[in-house]
Design goal:
Elements (H helix, E strand, L loop, with lengths): L1 E3 L7 E2 L4 E2 L4 E8 L4 E2 L4 E11 L4 E2 L4 E3 L13 E3 L4 E2 L4 E3 L2 E2 L3 E3 L4 E2 L4 E2 L3 E3 L4 E2 L4 E2 L3 E4 L4 E5 L2 H24 L2
Parallel strand pairs: 1-4, 2-4, 3-5, 4-6, 5-7, 6-8, 6-9, 7-10, 8-11, 9-12, 10-13, 11-14, 12-15, 13-16, 14-17, 15-18, 16-19
Antiparallel strand pairs: 19-20
GO molecular function: transferase activity
Protein name: Bacterial transferase hexapeptide domain protein
InterPro entries: Hexapep (IPR001451), LbH_gamma_CA-like (IPR047324), Transf_Hexapept/Carb_Anhydrase (IPR050484), Trimer_LpxA-like_sf (IPR011004)
C-alpha cells in the first residue's frame, strides 16, 4: 500500500484495518478500528484532514479529499466519515461530513460542506450539492439529491449489517495474505 507523508503528517491506522495495496493514503488521514480501504482508493489529506470512523468501508475507485483553509472559509472543509458507513464503488467525497450507519451508493458525489445525518441511504449516482443537509432516516436520490422516502426498519438494520459484512470480508483478505 502507498502511505505517504505530506508536510510531516502521515496517515494513521488503528488496529485491524485493511488497506489494499493499490490504494494511496496521503497526509492527515486517520482510520479507526476495522476500517477497510479497497482497490484504487485515493485519500488525500493534504490541505485539511480526513477522519474515517470504525467499521467503515471505502470501496474501489473512490476519491476522498478536502478543501483548504482560506479567508472566506477559515476552517476549510475536512472530510469526516462516521462509523459503520459503506461507501460504494467510484464515489467522490469532498470536504463533507457523514454521520453513522450510512450507505453511499455507487458513483455518488458529496460536495464541500454537505452534512449527512445518521441512518441514511444515498442512491447510486446521486449528487449532494455543497452545504446541503440530508436528514436522518431517509433515502435520497437524484441530481441534485432529493428526499425520496423514509427508510424501512429493514433498511435501517441493513446499514449496520453492510458494515459487518465488510469486516468479515476484510478479515478474510488479511488472513489470506499471511
Amino acid at each position: 500500500m502507498a502511505i505517504r507523508s505530506y508536510k510531516d503528517k502521515l496517515p494513521t491506522l488503528a488496529e485491524h484495518c485493511y488497506i489494499d495495496a493499490s490504494s494511496v493514503l496521503v497526509g492527515d488521514v486517520k482510520c479507526a478500528e476495522h476500517v477497510s480501504i479497497w482497490p484504487l482508493v485515493a485519500a488525500r489529506g493534504d490541505v485539511n484532514y480526513i477522519q474515517i470512523g470504525a467499521r467503515t468501508n471505502i470501496q474501489d475507485g473512490t476519491v476522498l479529499h478536502v478543501s483548504r483553509v482560506s479567508d472566506a472559509n477559515p476552517l476549510g472543509f475536512p472530510l469526516v466519515i462516521g462509523a459503520d458507513v459503506t461507501v460504494g464503488h467510484k464515489c467522490m467525497l469532498h470536504g463533507c461530513t457523514l454521520g453513522n450507519r450510512i450507505l453511499v451508493g455507487m458513483g455518488a458525489i458529496i460536495m464541500d460542506g454537505a452534512i449527512v445525518e445518521d441512518d441514511v441511504f444515498i442512491g447510486a449516482g446521486t449528487l449532494v450539492p455543497p452545504n446541503k443537509t440530508l436528514k436522518s432516516g431517509f433515502l435520497y436520490k437524484g441530481n441534485p439529491a432529493k428526499q425520496a422516502r423514509p427508510l424501512k426498519e429493514s433498511e435501517i438494520a441493513f446499514l449496520k449489517q453492510s458494515a459487518l459484512n465488510y469486516i468479515k470480508l476484510k478479515d478474510e483478505y488479511i488472513e489470506g495474505s499471511k
